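Quick check before the chapter quiz. The format below is the same one you will see on the exam, so make sure you can read both the input and the output lines.
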Amino acid sequence: MSRAAWMARAVNQQPSFVMDMVVLIAILLAGTLLWTLAYQAPRRLDLAIGGDNDTHRRWDDAPFLRNFNAPEPAHPDPRVEWWTLSPGFAYRWTQDDSTIDIPGLGGGRWLLTIRASGGRPENAAAVSSWQVNDREPVPIVIVADDRYYHLPVEASAAGDLTLRIRTEPHITAADPRNLGFVLREVQLTPLNSGLRSPALAQIAWLALSVALIYAMLRWMYIARRWAVLITSAIVLVSASLLATYPFVLTVFTPTLAALAASCAAIVLVFWVGFWAMTRGSANDQSRLRISHRQFAIIALVVLAFALRLGGMLNPYARFSDHVFNANNLFKVSLGIVHLTAGLPEEAGGGNAPYPPGMYLLQLPAQLFFPSDTAARVLLVQSSVAFLDSLIAALIWRLLRRAGLGQRAALFGAALYLLPPPLLESFSIGEYANIGGQFLALPALALLALSQAERETTDGQESRQWFWYWLPLLCIGLLGHLGVMMSLLSLLGCVWLVGLGSAVTQRRTKQTAPPLFAPGLIALGGACALLAAGLIYYSAPPYLAILEERLAAEATSTAADNSSAQAVLTELVLSFLGLMKPAGRAPLPTFLVCSYLMGLALLWRRGHRHYKQHSLGALLTAWGVGFLLLQAFLLVFVASMGVRWPLFIYPALCLGAGPALAMFWRRGGSGKLVVGAVLAAVLIFGLDFWIVQIRDYHP
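Here is the expected output.
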């Protein structure tokens, strides 16, 4: 690259306040125009109160309601579904002072239609008063029969609509709740067909989010043209959502702006730290190159964090175990560390140990959060999202240390942006599994990185890595029981690889060190397992669980009648992405194919690049370890086994990165293949995440 070309690139990539302000103002003006045009599209709100009989989802009305009773009909019997109960549709009881908030409605006149009934005995009516925004209250008499009530309304100056409902309470000894009347449906339809003014509050929230995202991109030395392209795409997507699914976005814009501000704060901390460390550097070109390398992976980590937490904070997202994890965090803060969790029947049933590793990691952050349950849920969700996002940085680091280059490392990290198995666990609330995997991966990373030291040193120094690896392995065994089993199975395969390598090199009298160190692997695994067992798993509550489970196994037959051949066939097809694993999210086929190609590439380079050879051996053991463990559990223990798609996904990204980098060097056709694979994997993950948020209901 010539000096003039480099200077032009540097000017384009280094932050320039005046130029960036001009560009940002232009983007915001264009965005305001598009958002205003989006408000001219026909829109209508149909709010199914209490649940949707078509999708069978409940609580989708919750973002719009305040001070309402829970959806009915209730279904305390898990064998009975609510939509099959009389009267055949869902509803909610209002309270004596309830509110319906419709954000981002826009200007103009609207017809508010409410389907309701009094709910009183002996056909008595409910006397109510409805107040729209700051206008005078309108008295409404809700008769006993199910009827529609129509009210012309206008949005506020900010474009929102607030309906406050005050009702004489219905007092009955049979129901201690605060009862107003029975609400079944809310509709909003426009009355005028002319131009409508946009909701100014929504425009402000969206503009703030776009401005923060643009600032983040420029702080991370993303080229101005790419920053313009990314923020323009965000403007177009938000405008299309406002035109097609407006209320899905309008209930989320304040949270979106808060999430963008949180990500900007993370980036700002990294930016200040980078400039503090490189302030004395005299070589601007070297400084620019270092900043590009560091901030590229920071951008991927922040993006992964935003995608995970943004999906969980979406008002329409539903979870199964998020409160369970918040309560476990509270128990650990009180000193209760021997936790248990009930396993489903397909996992063997009964109680099982629930190690507190993730909760211990989250304890210091409680100082910055309120002490209520909702705040603890937010703490658990945000911290687990951030920890899992850091795995992208770990993938990048491992590939860089293996000598595979910046491009291969970034490809591997980018593939971890939207992993469907992890996203499914985020939605369900399996946070301990995700956190336990984060605690286990540093031990594997150090095992891979230790090969560089063993290649260049000998004697006592060659074992120095072992004393760092042993405590990391102990920590990994206290993260999650399923992850612990997967980790031990992987280490067993690594030991076999190291043993085979040592025997082969002894026979051929090679001087190079064998792959891994089978003696140290065996010693470290035994010591870590013994330490975890003596310190934690030998507690009396866990010994009682173990005794009960052993007694049950002694009196029961095989857990699964499936043959080993059928189990292995299903596992292989699921691993290749050709079928969906039982009860779990599918793996992207393109990612698995890239992983297999990357393994072949790493093994082929083994005679020239020792570190790449050892990485290929580790990734091979990673895949074989999950296969053996899952097959053993499915055939002999339980019909579900462990959640192997979560544990194998980082290995898939590690193997796929070198394969994509190889294709990238093949010219235009190779770059086209790389773009297609990245797009296919990321679109697959994004589509899965959107569908999971939209359709999942506990």
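If your answer matched, good. The longest helix spans residues 284-313.
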